[in-house]
Amino acid sequence: MILLNTKDYSKVFKPLTKVTINTLFARAVIEQKVAGSVFVDCLDNPQTFYVLHPYGMSLLFGETNNQTFNQHFKEYVLNVPVSRSKEEWMQVYPFSWDTTLKNSLKIRLLISILKQE
Question: Which distant-in-sequence residues (6+ apart) come within 8 Å of 2 by Cβ?
């Protein structure tokens, strides 16, 4: 995951228009109406995106099969090493992200569930 410079947020606008779920909070970040963060898989031609609004809502969208991005995103979600100090609420698009995330996180999620029982 690469933190995108605000001057390059325009690279995210066209892919975001293809997302058919609520993206208003993500657009507010992309249009720099609020100060959020945008992470991408590469700087030149990004295909995978993670947009984080300052109140904690986030949107993961784009290409689901980028293994390098997915590994870094897994570490981010699991907060290893500790980099987040507040909660985030994530939406994903397309829905094939569900399978990608389940496959990536299933062992860790299973351990977490077992520890809670």
Answer: 39, 40, 41, 42, 43
